[in-house]
């Protein structure tokens, strides 16, 4: 869940991908979020794109 204090709202919430945990997924999410912010995305868009990217990588790893 991404919460923005200034906006006072919950911006992004996701369910865990089903199945066993994948090591490093939190670090990948944080890195993807930081990259999105560095590219000038707003926090909500950066969080959505980072979450989408990590979820896709997890699904590919389990395929």
- Total beta-strand segments: 2
Radius of gyration: 12 Å
**β-strand amount:** 5-15%
Separation of the first and last Cα atoms = 26 Å
The low-confidence runs, each spanning 5 or more residues with pLDDT under 50, are none
CA-based shape: globular
The SSE order reads: EEHH
Percent of residues in helices comes to 40-55%
The largest sheet is: 2 strands, antiparallel
How would you explain this protein's 3D organization?
Helices cover 54% and strands 11% of the residues. The relative contact order is 0.20. Helix 1 (25-38) runs antiparallel to helix 2 (43-62). The termini are far apart. It is mostly helical. It has a domain at 23-63. The protein contains two helices and two strands; from the N terminus they run ββαα. Strands 1-2 form a two-stranded antiparallel sheet. The longest helix has 20 residues, at 43-62.
Quick tags:
single chain; 63 residues; mainly alpha; two-stranded antiparallel sheet; 2 strands; 54% helix
Describe the secondary structure blueprint for this structure.
Blueprint: E1 2-4, E2 9-12, H1 25-38, H2 43-62
Antiparallel strand pairs: 1-2
Helix pairs in contact: 1-2
Briefly summarize what is shown.
The chain is mostly helical and 63 residues long.
């Amino acid at each position: 869940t991404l919460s923005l204090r200034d906006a006072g709202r919950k911006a992004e919430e996701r369910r865990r991908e089903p199945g066993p945990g994948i090591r490093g997924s939190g670090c990948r999410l944080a890195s993807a979020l930081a990259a999105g912010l560095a590219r000038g995305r707003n926090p909500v868009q950066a969080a959505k794109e980072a979450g989408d990217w990590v979820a896709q990588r997890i699904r590919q790893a389990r395929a």
